[in-house]
Amino acid sequence: MNSLNSEAFVLFDQHILWSDMIGNICGLIALALGWRRSVWTWPVQFLAGLILFGAFFGHLTGSAGKQAVVMAVALYGWWQWNRGRDKAADGHISVRFASWTERGAMAAAAVVGTVAVALLFKAYPSLSWDPWPDAYIFVGTIVAMYAQARGMVEFWFAWLLVDLVGVPLNFANGYAFSGFVYVIYGALVLWGLRDWWLRSRTTAARPVPEGARA
User: Fold this and answer.
1) pTM for the complete prediction?
2) Of 25, 117, 126, 123, which Cα lies nearest the Cα of 66?
């Protein structure tokens, strides 16, 4: 992993690491696959998390921890999308808007989780140099990936909220390529949101239980 943490090139006076570049390119591919509702989004997300874990480990422990959780959620998403339930006519996962109960649960989890993780980071300063935004991204990423695993259109809204903080935070931490990629993420998220929103209308006739489905 040491070779992956070496410098690839310099762009606009920012030193780009191989691990930062490769991990985030995988992340872009995973997001594009998620847009296409391909189950392969999950192993690619797992690979991106693994590479970025190596990039952050030993320098930004909190960010490394986030990538470990990302890998765990990627395994959950892979399992969820391979269960054979809620498939569309084209064989890919069908998408829908979350119920109000699901939205409330995710919002509450995001708020409580962000506060809890930020307090943990503040109690152990070595985990993060900037606890609140790091905790926000940490928890927001988990919520977004969970919504993606359940085929919820709200997945894209969650990613947009993560991007708003992720771009400046990555530039501030010296991970310039991550910052540039988060900008591209924003464009992909808008396109993906439009696609999933339109597709959700084709399944709107099917009633969705008010509570989360198992």
Assistant:
1) 0.77
2) 117
Model pLDDT for residues 106-132, shown as the tens digit of each residue? 999 999 999 999 999 899 887 777 889
Asked whether the predicted pLDDT for residue 149 surpasses 80, the reply is yes
- Do 135 and 128 meet the contact criterion of CB atoms below 8 Å apart? yes
- Mean pLDDT, range 198-212, rounded to an integer: 58
Could you give the angle at the alpha carbon of 116 between the alpha carbons of 112 and 120, nearest 5°? Answer: 170
| Other C-beta atoms lying within 10 Å of the C-beta of residue 62 | 22
**What string of DSSP letters covers 184-206?**
HHHHHHHHHHHHHHHHHHHTTTS
> What is the sign of the dihedral through the CA atoms of 109, 111, 112 and 118?
positive
- Side-chain half-sphere exposure of 89, counting CA atoms within 13 A: 4
Lowest mean per-residue pLDDT among 30-34, 76-80, 109-113, 146-150:
30-34
- CB-based contacts of 7: which residues, under 8 Å, 6+ apart? 15, 16, 17, 18
State CA 15 to chain mean position distance: 24
